[in-house]
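Bumping with the actual sequence this time:
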Amino acid sequence: MLMLLFLTTAVGAVAAPPKSYEVKSPDGSLSIVLTVDDGLHYSVLRDGAELVAPSQIALTLATGEVLGEHPKVRSARRRSVAETVEAPLHRQSSLDIAFNELNLRCRDGYGIIARAYDDGVCYRFYTEREGELTILDETAQLNFTGDPSAYVAYANTKIPMQTSFENTYTYAPLSEFRTETLAFMPILVDLGARGYVLYTESDVESYPGIYVSYDAEAKGLTARFAGYPVETSLTKRFEDVVETSEEYIARVPGTRSYPWRIVACAATAAELPVNDMVWKTAGESRISDVSWIRDGKIAWDWWNDWGVYGVDFKSGINTETYKYFIDFAAEHGIEYVALDEGWSVRDGDIMHVIPEIDLPQIVSYGRQKGVGIVLWVVAKVLDDKLKEACAHYAGMGVVGWKVDFINRQDQAAVDRVYRIAEAAARHHMIIDFHGIYKPTGLQRTYPNVVNFEGIFGLEQLKWTDRTKADMPAYDCTFPFIRQVAGPVDYTQGAMSNASRKSFRAVNADPMSQGTRAHQVAAYVVFDSPLVMLCDSPTAYLKEPQTLEYIVRFPTRFDRTIVPAGEIGRYIVTVRRAGDRWYLGALTNWDARDVEVKLDFLGDGQWKAYIFRDGVNADRYGEDYILEERTVTAAETLTMPMAPGGGYAVQFEQLR
């Protein structure tokens, strides 16, 4: 009997029961629970109901050591934070940030921090070791009970970890996740009556980003990472493509924090487009004076194929065409003109300009007219001569870069992105990143990074037929998913607007799917502090009412709300800039009426300037109606939207 008692006690000492640490959100509704036993797991709950099932997390070093395996907790420290911070060029100009935090410091020089906000939870590893660490892999799961459906964007290239991060969404049960490829973040999981969880990451610096596959055994999503590049080859555009990679994913300093793994939570779909988890967890600004960073609109050349006509010069990539673009921009209050692909010699050297372009003259002409010049460039080509190019072109008066063809998120690619952002900031140059992964908070850390692509944008309609691109549905989908992570350079503003039956993909003479009002409303619905007018000056000058309406939209807002929306079906977005309000509504190919309460307006009467679908917009996308109404906050606004349609309203208070 004594021997049995001794054995029982001994076994109990070895196999101690798991210990759980719970962190609740300030309002008490959400919680993240860290469970410590033979490994580290987390789960997410709302009001005690499980959203995310226990999911394993760990860091595996090249030495074979696994941080998170048989963890021994040295201390568990808690803190609460509540503060208001300025958020320049974000969808809200300031944010109230409040969270509760747990810091589990473990033996062997590592730890994990978990936070709970009212709109999501997150965690990150940190290490406190000397020297350098080689990270072989990271375990990051997102598991579920049952088989919920999810909105997934798959890598659409032969090599999944080399992708432009542009694809539409597939909605299907997780068990039907495609095994032949990987998906990229954000991913939105539909939990039915329990709401939604969106999986993404922030503060990804000098570390690879997450791609996602499905783990049938765990019944959830699992992270996959690109190995560190060893050998690359060059494409015709001088993009460097990875040929071979190391087995490890990163080499890092022994003392550092790792990216935040975010589970954003929403009870309803309308909460998603205004979820600020990525911005709130991003690294703080490294630019002390941001007064020089200017948002605005850009007159763009590439989408419309330099489509200027009715002039006395041969239009194309030449000085005369760009001076015409500058005149157009200056006359209509457009802040920038982009010189896209073609202005430099295609020899891999950014310092070489084609003879048809007198760049100093163009930049000087723009400066005289109050129009800034933004130059397109391949990321590697800029990076090869980063210091020289920034100094030279900023000295000339160029105000920014449109940086393209990154198309990766391995550690080396992420380092390049930060390196370009920092160098541009030192020379007071803004950045619009294209061919890039979703935002991970870089727009907070370097506010001169004003916009990102990473979106299946309007350019896709230059070459994608209607059987492979349903843009009205996509336009009503990505604001609930991709846009949660940060702004999008979708490049809206098409003046040729096609019905579902009449649409054709024509590269040199492109058109949009859906109505003119849909294109106009996109300037409100899409987060774009640096936004293109994608069509040519000629097209806009033929449509002066549309042009005048578009250029009256601001690009910097103080508040954003989404009063109504259903993923893939429709969305209504309302924004305030100063003392004016702006509303945009989009629908898919289903005609619908949506009622919107105007209770966001202040007291008194307001003049509503409305741009909506015309009676025949279902057949002729360019058909629209401009009208004015006087409204108050007590009223409800109901507008009919044609298939692929929308409407916009600009509110001005009557004095």
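The tokens above came from a reply further down the thread. The first strand starts at residue 19 and ends at 24.
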